[in-house]
Each structure stands twice: as structure tokens, then as C-alpha cells.
Design a protein that fits this description.
single chain; alpha+beta; two-stranded antiparallel sheet; 9 helices; about 60% helix; about 10% strand
């Protein structure tokens, strides 16, 4: 595979069109060929201007698949945990493009939502109850509203997410045995497991919530 300034040569569109999983296959079967593939997606000019040389990167197939969705290339490369591969200039460009174009906004929005939920949780569970809630009706209402927000939004979101992923895992057989139980394999991830435990704790808190009993 070789890239030129104007177009691809040697059938790169045909390769990715026929084998969309070529990155995943090379990661598992011929990892040493990945740098060769990536170098073929770069065109470097022979001429320099002011000490700089023009370079074109042809990375469309590493970002978008044939259906217009996100390609699985970065997922496969991340799972390989190969620092030499992920530090290649082509992959750095792809990751920067995805971060600035798609991921950054979603990441910031999700973290702002988490920080807001954490602030409401601390306010309703630790701060306001110690501010004379017994004698102040407004504080009691604020505590009730804060806890309702946590249970309705945070807990419900976690329940929907984990129930969906559990059902999908059992349907597709992606489970792992732990003692005599078969658990979804996605729970092996540390942060996902913590998220599942947080859901259980919020459900227990809701069940014993004095404001609702």
C-alpha cells in the first residue's frame, strides 16, 4: 500500500473495503506489518520550503468505516498495549483528530455531569444535614430535592447502563465464571466494576432512605 499526493496506489481502498478488520487482524496475527501499513498511508514531498517539507496523511479508513460509523482501528490498537505502534505519527494524528473532533466534547460533558452529581451528593448527604435541617423546612426540602436528583438521574442512569450491558453480555456469551456464578466479562474492567458497585450502593441508600419511608 502506498499513498501519493493525489490518490492512493496499490488498491488501498480495496484493501480496507474488503477487509475492514485488517488492523485487528494484523494486531493479532502479524503485528510487525503494522508500521509498513502505516508508512504506506503517508506521502512526503521531495521538496522543502523554509526548512519544512509537506506531508499528507491518508487516514480516512482508520477513522470512519464504510457505513459512516467509527472505525475499530483505534480500539484494536489500544487493546494491543504496544507503545511503539500507538506512538506512530499516523496513529498520533488519528487520535488527535478523534479527540478534537468527537471525544473531547463528550468527555468534558460526561465529567461535568459527574462533578455536578458529586456536588449534589455531598450537599444533600453531608453538608446540609449538619446545617440545622431539623429546624429549617427549606433545608429539609433542599435535602429531599438533592437526594431525589441523585436517585432519579445518577442511579437510574447506572441501572439502565449496566442492565443493558449485562443482557447483551449474557446473550452473546461474553461471560466469565467466578466460583459457581457466571458474570459479564465487562465487569473485569476495574472502573466498570467500581461503577457497578456504585450502582448497588445507591440502590441500597435509596431502599433505606429515611425521607422516602
Amino acid at each position: 500500500i502506498r499513498a501519493d499526493r493525489e490518490r492512493y496506489y496499490y488498491g488501498v481502498d480495496a484493501v480496507f473495503g474488503t477487509h475492514e478488520d485488517i488492523i485487528s487482524r494484523l494486531v493479532h496475527e502479524a503485528r510487525s506489518l503494522l508500521p509498513v501499513l502505516f508508512e504506506g498511508l503517508v506521502w512526503r514531498s521531495r521538496h522543502t520550503k523554509d526548512g519544512l517539507r509537506r506531508v499528507n496523511y491518508y487516514v480516512q479508513h482508520l477513522i470512519v468505516n464504510s457505513n459512516g460509523g467509527l472505525a475499530d482501528a483505534m480500539k484494536s490498537l489500544t487493546a494491543s498495549k504496544d507503545q511503539g505502534i500507538v506512538s506512530h505519527p499516523v496513529i498520533c494524528l488519528v487520535s488527535d483528530t478523534l479527540w478534537t473532533g468527537v471525544v473531547r466534547r463528550q468527555f468534558l460533558v460526561s465529567k461535568l455531569g459527574f462533578l455536578f452529581a458529586l456536588f449534589v451528593f455531598l450537599l444533600s448527604q453531608a453538608i446540609l444535614p449538619k446545617a440545622g435541617a431539623e429546624d429549617n423546612r427549606a433545608i429539609r426540602i433542599a435535602i429531599l430535592c438533592g437526594r431525589a436528583i441523585n436517585y432519579v438521574f445518577s442511579m437510574t442512569r447506572l441501572i439502565i447502563s449496566h442492565v443493558t450491558r449485562c443482557v447483551r453480555a449474557y446473550r452473546t456469551g461474553k461471560t466469565k465464571r467466578l466460583c459457581c456464578l457466571r458474570l459479564p466479562s465487562y465487569l473485569c474492567d476495574f472502573y466498570t466494576c467500581l461503577s457497578f458497585l456504585l450502582m448497588l450502593l445507591l440502590m441500597a441508600m435509596c431502599a433505606f432512605e429515611p425521607k422516602m419511608n
